[in-house]
Amino acid sequence: MSDDELVLGIPRSHLPGRAGWRGIAYGNLAPLLDAIVTHGTYRPRRDVEDDPSWKQVIPYVVLRDRGSLFLMRRTRAGTDARLHERYSVGIGGHVNPEDGSLDGGLHREWSEELVAEWTPDFRLVGLLNDDTDPVGAVHLGIVYIAEAQGRPVAVRETHKLEGEFVAPLQVLRVYDRLETWSSLVYDYLTERSAGVRIDGMTPAVRR
């Protein structure tokens, strides 16, 4: 992170229920995406890293292939020792001004993180939120599903990451080492937990 990096974010006050849920919120997401366009701005990352009143927007893609999930393991070559041997089922990152939009940031992250000679149709799933730790309290995930449909894909930074498609039950075997966002997404996609319907922000079972 450079000191002057600008990242897209939105005031918590413009989010449904002030983003008071934990896990995946689903339903009519169009107003939220409109709010990001209308009220989202780019601010220096150093100014918002400790400001829970401002949610940094993170496009977060889960890659599937005929029921399998693309599971990634962070090796010990990474610079952040806290992430060594941690697992993830999603790729994502901040949106910068040069991306032009949330969609632009989504496509850039896809190209930076993965080697694939194809671009998927990104299907919007929901909003990911977790205020139980300081990092989650200042970020909001926009979760998408991408389907590989048998097409080859690999991680780009092979010295830092390993990745392969595995059955959901295999993810469960390393569940205690999943990154927090990944565990919340996994629970939702495998129906281990219900999501929160965004209309009125009341708990609801996913249809």
Structure description:
It is a single chain. The chain is α+β, with helices and mostly antiparallel strands. It has helices at residues 30-39, 45-48, 102-113, 168-173, 180-189, and strands at residues 6-11, 23-26, 41-44, 54-65, 68-74, 87-88, 90-92, 114-115, 123-129, 139-147, 154-155, 161-166, 196-197, 202-203. Strands 1, 2, 3, 4, 5, 6, 7, 9, 10, 12, 13 and 14 form a twelve-stranded mixed beta sheet that branches. Strand 4 and strand 5 form a beta hairpin. The longest helix has 12 residues, at 102-113. The protein starts with 5 loop residues before the first strand and ends with a strand. 34% of the residues are buried. Mean pLDDT is 91; it is low at 200-207.
Number of domains: 1
| Fraction of helical residues | 10-25%
Q: CATH homologous superfamily name?
A: Nucleoside Triphosphate Pyrophosphohydrolase
Q: Give a quick account of the main beta sheet: strands, pairing sense, barrel closure.
A: 12 strands, mixed
Choose one word for the global shape.
globular
Number of strands: 14
- The CATH topology comes to Nucleoside Triphosphate Pyrophosphohydrolase
Residue stretches low in confidence (pLDDT < 50, at least 5 long) are 200-207
Tally of DSSP helical segments: 5
Mean pLDDT: 91
CATH class bucket: Alpha Beta
N-to-C order of helices and strands: EEHEHEEEEHEEEEEHHEE
**Amino- and carboxy-terminal Cα gap:** 39 Å
Structural class: alpha+beta
